[in-house]
Structure formats: structure tokens, C-alpha cells
Amino acid sequence: MKHLLTALALLIAVPVQAAEKLTVALDWTPNTNHVGLYVAQAKGWFKEAGLDVEILPYTDTSSGTLVATGVAQFGILSAVGFHSQRSMGADMTAVMAVVQHETGRLVFNGEREDIQRPADLDGKIYAGFGSAWENALISSIIKHDGGEGTFDTVTLGTSAYEALANGSVDFTLEVSTWEGVNSVLLNRPQRTFSYADYGVPDQHTTFLGGNGTWLAANAETATAFVQAAQRGYAFAADNPDAAADMLISGTGGMLSNPDLVHASMKALVEGGFLRDAGEPVGLIDADLITGITGFLFEAGILRDANGDTLTEMPDVSGWYTNACLAE
Questions:
Q1: Helical packing angle, 258-270 and 219-238, nearest 10°
Q2: pLDDT of residue 209 exceeding 80
Q3: Is the predicted pLDDT of residue 11 greater than 50, yes or no?
Q4: E strands within 74-205?
Q5: Do 283 and 221 fall into the same domain?
Q6: Residue among 117, 163, 113 at smallest CA distance from 143
Q7: Which CATH number belongs to the domain containing residue 189 in this structure?
Q8: How far apart are the first and last CA of the chain?
Q9: Is there a single domain that holds both residue 188 and residue 113?
Q10: What is the pTM of this model?
Q11: Confidence band, pLDDT 50/70/90 cuts, at residue 17
């Protein structure tokens, strides 16, 4: 009896190690690009790694800013935003490629007979989203096809797709695995121009990134988080329907169109956007990073910490790491 009491006393005296709290910022309202986080949460893989992970709600402050300033340890980062902020010295490092290839494309009404090639877009109206990247991208595509690269822009944000449907604008940009899928569900015939067909380098369009200072000081915790998230995305790549259901359930009613979520997951998987054949999910390709950075540099989009246009191509080798990924 004495030994039993002693053993119980020792058990009571040993404190239970609390899970380490981490926050992850989203780059937009929840969508299928975030699916791996919600799968890892639903499966208990973050908890299994000793982590208490909070997925922060999307706000007007970019995920890149939240990560760079240390408000969040990790964030889902849009590629162009990441490259732009990193060139200005933002304290963040890409640790995983969420979307392996370019999902964006230039889109217009499928019934338009006057648009057959990018050069036909000269002088037409573009429904935009307010970034310097868009102008450089579209101008480059048109010029690559022999046009002048001139067009009128009206900034509409997500209203661009309704404006395109009702004919008040001529073209816009979309993510093929979300807005493109939705256009099919809405029975809105479209035609598209792929960026890569007109001289724009392929890129990882979405990253998981971390605060650089925090990563350096917390390598073990960072690796545990990244590998749990990687496991979530790998599950999604193999089980898109189940992953879609977990995303819908985990977002508390924010995704009101389950058909869109499931169709988007199918497009991500069948298009090879979540995983390249023979490679682990999330692997960052150095050539893709260098290629798109070079395009942005040549277009005069990248700026330094003072806001001045970069005059030399930046060294991107320290902008990313694959060290946290499972092989």
C-alpha cells in the first residue's frame, strides 16, 4: 500500500507538458489552398506533434505582414506577395510549397469572337485587383504575342467575375482551381490564356512560410509543425473528397457551397498542383523561385527596404528552405 501511495504521489507531482501554442495566418478567406491545415487539425496531427495550433481568421492585414512582424509564427503566403515583401527585407522564410505550379490564368467570355489571341486585348477593359503584378503580367503576355500591351483597368476585386459575366469588362485574371471551377458550376463558358504559353515563368503560387527569427530559434518546433501540415496536404492529395469535407466542417459554415469545395479539390489533385510525381508534398523548387523572381525583377516590381526599385537581381537562396519537410 505504501509503495502504491508513493507511486501515485510521483505521478501527481510530474506536470503534464502543455502543448506549445502556434498561430497560422491565412492569405484569404478559407479555401482549398488551406486544406492541409484543416486536415491536420481534424486528424489531431498538430496535437500529436505537441502543438496547439490556432488558424487565425483572415483580416485586411496581409498574412505576410503578420508573419514578418511576428504576430503569427506561420502563414499561408501568396507567391507574388511573398517575393515582393521578401525583397524589401521582410523577416519571413518559405518552408513549404503549398501549390506546386501556376494556377492563375487570363480569362474572358467564351462567346467573344473578337478575342482570339492576347494581342486582341490591346485597348480593352481589364477588371483588376490593384497590384503592380497584374499590369506587368498582362502587358508581358500581350507583348509576347506581338501586341502593344496597352489596356484600361478598373479595380473591382472579387466583383470582377460578375462584371465579366455581365459584359461590363472584357477580361480578368482568375485562379483556375477556384474561380475557374466555379464558372463551370455556374455554366458560364470561358476561354483562357495560360501565362506560361506567353513567356511568363511557372511558379509555386502559394507557400507556407514562417517568421525567420522565430524559425531560427525554434527549429524543432518548426519542423514538427511543418511536417504535420505536410501530412495534412499529403492526405488531401490522396483523399480529396474526405479532405474537402474536413475543410467544410473545420471552417464553421464559412464555405457554403460544398460542390465548389469538392470540385476545387478535384481540380487541385487532377491538375497535379498539390504534388509533383516522385516528390514529397510541399517540396520547394529552387529554379521556380529564381525564375519568377527574375521576371518580377525585370518588370521593375521588386523594391528594397526604402521603397526603391531593385537594380540588381536579389539572391533568393535564403528566402526558402526544405529543411523542415519530411522526406
A1: 100
A2: yes
A3: no
A4: 74-78, 92-99, 104-109, 125-128, 152-155, 171-175, 190-194
A5: yes
A6: 117
A7: 3.40.190.10
A8: 50
A9: yes
A10: 0.92
A11: low
